[in-house]
Amino acid sequence: MPKPENFWASWHERLRALRNVPPVLKIVWESGPGVVTFGIVARVVAALLPIALTYIPKLIIDILVRLLQTHEPVPVRLWWLVLAEFGLAMLSSIRNGLLGFAAGEQIHAARQHSGDEACLGAGSHSLRWSGFL
To answer: Which pTM was predicted?
Structure first.
């Protein structure tokens, strides 16, 4: 079992290291605000996808239950929900690729910003959307 003084010393060191976070975030933002914004938006969309992928089937099931009880014609809204579910499922399947792309672009932009010439070639084989951002 680690000694208590070593335990608290390591936590104190970790908390002191948090002082480096704001300067690092500033460097990342200055290296490419478009790439950082894209990465944040992609992560928010990725976080909301599971919620939408569970809520839309709930709406579809509610409509189907109502149709079975009332024997009404199938509403157009049902087909829009099915289409939305299909679209979200497709988006969900490519979200990891988008997040990986955003992370790679952030690294590439930070390396260009810092002038790290030795590392510039590392990301050059990736798909570039520099005209997009």
So the answer is: 0.54
Tell me what the mean pLDDT of segment 46-56 comes to.
91
pLDDT digits (tens, 9 = 90+) for 64-89: 999 999 999 999 999 999 999 999 98
Whether residue 4 is contained in a domain is answered as no
Distance CA 40, CA 99 (A): 9
Closest CA to 98 of 29, 55, 47: 47
> How many other C-beta atoms are found inside a 10 Å radius of the C-beta of residue 24?
10
Tell me how many domains the chain contains.
1
Q: Residue 1 domain-assigned?
A: no
The domain of 108 spans 22-123
DSSP 16-67: HHGGGHHHHHHHHHHH-HHHHHHHHHHHHHHHHHHHHHHHHHHHHHHHHHHH
Q: Would you say residue 51 lies in a domain?
A: yes
pLDDT tier at 4, thresholds 50, 70, 90: low
Residue 87 is assigned to a structural domain of this protein: yes
Which one, of 69, 89, 65, 90, lies nearest residue 78 by Cα? Answer: 65
